[in-house]
Design brief:
With 144 residues, this protein is mainly alpha-helical. It has helices at residues 10-17, 32-43, 49-53, 57-69, 83-91, 111-119, 123-143, and strands at 2-5, 24-27, 74-77, 100-103. 53% of the residues lie in helices and 11% in strands. Helix 6 (111-119) packs antiparallel against helix 7 (123-143).
């Protein structure tokens, strides 16, 4: 298993170590400065803020390292923003190799910012959230 971990996840990590044969984690570090940088990047591109925000290079590096050391039949992504990692891993295989990817998405993520935009009294916030919703919907269609 490969997962992000936060500073307060030690109890969860300890529990998973008792269940999983192999457990690898990548520290998830967020900051207002990083979020602002990625928001600017979002506005300069056609990508979703949430997808850009969770595109941690360390996670992609860990996936590549694990794929180079081990053989896998499938990769399971448990949220839409993790699909980019599974797809990058699948794309790193030669055309003769097969790596099944599975996205376990429990709802339509794009509906969350859409709902927030409809409930906002700020016209600027409504536009930003509606834009994020459209980008997530596009990403969801391309990914799934």
């Amino acid at each position: 298993m490969l997962a992000f971990k936060r500073d307060d996840d030690e109890a969860v990590i300890n529990h998973l170590e008792g269940i999983c044969t192999n457990l690898h984690s990548v520290q998830l570090t967020r900051s207002r400065v990083r979020d602002l940088r990625e928001l600017v990047q979002c506005f300069l591109s056609d990508r979703s803020f949430l997808i850009i925000r969770d595109g941690f290079a360390r996670m992609h590096q860990m996936i590549q390292m694990l794929l180079s050391e081990n053989s896998y039949e499938s990769i399971h992504a448990d949220q839409l923003w993790m699909a980019q990692c599974a797809l990058a891993a699948r794309n790193s295989f030669s055309s003769d190799d097969r790596l099944m990817t599975d996205l376990d998405e429990h709802n339509s993520v794009f509906l969350i910012p859409l709902s927030l935009s409809m409930g906002s009294s700020s016209p600027i916030k409504r536009k930003i959230l509606a834009r994020e919703s459209r980008r997530l919907a596009k990403y969801e269609l391309e990914t799934c």
